[in-house]
Amino acid sequence: MRNQSISVHFARAVLKNTVKVGLDPAEILRRNRISPRLLQEENARISIERFADLQVSTMRDMDDESLGYASRRLPLGCWSMMCYALIGSDTLGQALHRYCRFYQMFDLELEPELDVSQDRATLRLRQQRQSATIEPYMAELFLFNAHRLGSWLVQEHLSIQTVHLSYAMATAASDYRHMFLGHPVAFNQDECAVVMPSALLDKSIVQNEQSLRHFLRHPALLMLTQNYARSSWTSKVKTLLLRNMLSMPELPEVAAQLELHPQTLRRRLSGEGTTFKELKNQLRRDTALHYLGKQGLSIEEIAHRAGFSESSAFIRAFKSWTGVTPYSYRKGI
């Protein structure tokens, strides 16, 4: 789903090292239709499409796929070469071993490795030197890319038992959960790692060089928006709400469609770390951000598509989400 949004925290992380190499972050933001003012707002969000474009554009400007976070530059083309190196794998386990081996050849201070023991497979980032500092966004890039690439290779969301991050949470917990598809994320751990059932490593690769060529046209966007069939209650509720954005059903109606008592649905959503109200607000917010990036739609029409009957209510809600009005947001992009 491309009508999603992401915290500006991650946009700031993408741009963190641009000044060091003589680039103007404000110019990069404007070129990607993102207002520099948004990055000053703690709770602001941008559409997932704008973020994906920003990340790719910044990598190109820096000629560095690590965005300046790695101990040495990763020239443009490394990601494509890595993908071609593993696309001939028979199983997910073989592909992830090749993913790790590829980046180990660069002799980085932070290297991925796959450790398999009994019923667990752990893809961790190993520090080459104990004194090396783990940059949070570098760790997130490696782990996110490995998980989403693996999911694409087998065409299903890989189930994660837990994600370990060795640093403190820097933005809302929901953003990290979204990054790892709703799976639990633990902070201030001893290592940065993704832990999954080892049985997943036996899954067959279903992609080939032809599908890889399509994937490589915009891998950042595809990995951020990939949406394979999922059985979570959050996913089921979102699907029903998206079909009825204009009328936006209430909890009892959605529960009835899922053949559940409303209180049972509340408990199941709570068990997945969310609420019905939060899901409605997320969908309205992300739909609004998606359409504000498009030309030709009035604020009134966008409010209607986001499930608001009145523009005034939409404007108030939008300002609470991003810190600016929809008019200011659109003017900035």
Automatic annotation (TrEMBL):
Q: What Gene3D superfamilies does the annotation carry?
A: Homeodomain-like
Signal sequence annotation: none
**GO-annotated cellular components:** cytosol
Q: Which keywords does UniProt give here?
A: DNA-binding, Transcription, Transcription regulation
DNA-binding as a keyword of this entry, yes or no, is yes
Q: Which domain of life is it from?
A: Bacteria
Q: Which SMART domains match?
A: HTH_ARAC
Q: Name one GO molecular function term.
A: transcription cis-regulatory region binding
Q: Per its UniProt record, what InterPro entries does this chain match?
A: AraC-type_N (IPR032687), Homeodomain-like_sf (IPR009057), HTH_AraC (IPR018060), Tscrpt_reg_AraC-type_HTH (IPR020449)
In this chain the HTH araC/xylS-type domain maps to: 235-332
* UniProt-recorded name of the protein: AraC family transcriptional regulator
